[in-house]
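User: Predict structure, ligand flavin-adenine dinucleotide.
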Amino acid sequence: MDFRLTEEQEALRESVRDFAREVVAPVIAEHYEKHTFPYEVVRQMGKMGLFGLPFAEEYGGMGGNYFTLCLALEELARVDSSVAITLEAAISLGAMPIYRFGTEEQKAQWLPKLISGEALAGFGLTEPGVGSDAGGTQTRAVLDGDEWVINGSKAFITNSGTDITTLVTVTAVTGTRPDGSKELSTIIVPSGTPGFTVAPGYSKVGWNASDTHELTFDDCRVPAGNLLGERGRGFAQFLRILDEGRIAIAALAVGLAQGCVDESLKYARERHAFGQPIGNYQAIQFKIADMEMRAHTARLAYYDAAARMLAGEPFKRQAAIAKLHASTIAVDNAREATQIHGGYGFMNEYPVARFWRDSKILEIGEGTSEVQRMIIARDLGL
Ligand SMILES: Cc1cc2nc3c(=O)[nH]c(=O)nc-3n(C[C@H](O)[C@H](O)[C@H](O)COP(=O)(O)OP(=O)(O)OC[C@H]3O[C@@H](n4cnc5c(N)ncnc54)[C@H](O)[C@@H]3O)c2cc1C
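Assistant: Predicted complex:
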């Protein structure tokens, strides 16, 4: 068992760390405050090859794997979660369904631009009335000649409304199975298709420099060939995408948790109270020690889940554990980092205020903490 990173992985980690500190950190607070999407940062991430990290070179990717993506996400989230979730969703939810399930024609058409970061894609699973119980999807797609006609709506879809969004993949009911259950399929809907409307961005508590919209489909017609993979495989497809995505969200949560340690260490050395730096007080030292312990153990959990996935072993339980644990400790660390910063921790100009606001969604997105517990319990045979 060896948890050390290879030289290549260390080099990637270093370069993303430098990028986050030198390029993201100086501009992100303003984007966050104004709720604007950081196009310039995304463009530079594209030039660095980050959008191609886990993809094969034949499609323009970097030939890495899902673990290298996780390392990059951790380093980005250590500085800012809006940028990290933009990359996570672009790869894990946007390009990956096409990479995993698309035909060669679909891959050739869409992947090069998604992998270069010139374009983004969204993944439309959640609906206004259906989230955790995603099998209850209401959106319908009916085959009419050589076109799918889609009707319904999707809620909270990341990267679905930027100026460079090129498509969303949408899960829809395409029929009824012999046992009476819904047949779900996934369909590619290019941006700008008539009948596909993107609502204005939500007013969110956090992730304010990321892009999230409600989408509606009103007799929206796309070619029959836009079906992703086999008809009726929608459920299995999104379960796979979400299992993998949980490892990536865990990495992002670890990054936020580690960012809380970074900022707290700095502040504990600078801030004086009762004649000495607050870092001299054991109460503060213990908080920071606990924060470091939580970040470290959560990191091991996602390393383990990623290693199992890359080895082709079952990883559902470990991915759920990693996501559940990492998101829980991210919230804990954000709360403690804010506490260490006192009143300044409640001021938006301090990164920990952003970390605090960004942490809560980690217990909700890509499967709530309750859903992770359900997955773990089921995997244990309950
Ligand atoms: C900023 C943001 C970005 C997002 N991006 C995307 C995206 O790109 N694509 C996408 O498809 N979705 C996206 N989502 C949606 C997200 O995945 C869902 O919000 C999440 O899965 C929870 O669904 P819900 O909000 O409908 O909550 P619900 O499912 O309504 O759950 C409400 C509460 O009930 C609990 N609950 C539900 N069922 C059970 C049960 N059986 N037992 C115990 N408790 C239960 C839940 O855990 C939760 O606490 C995003 C959400 C946000 C906020």
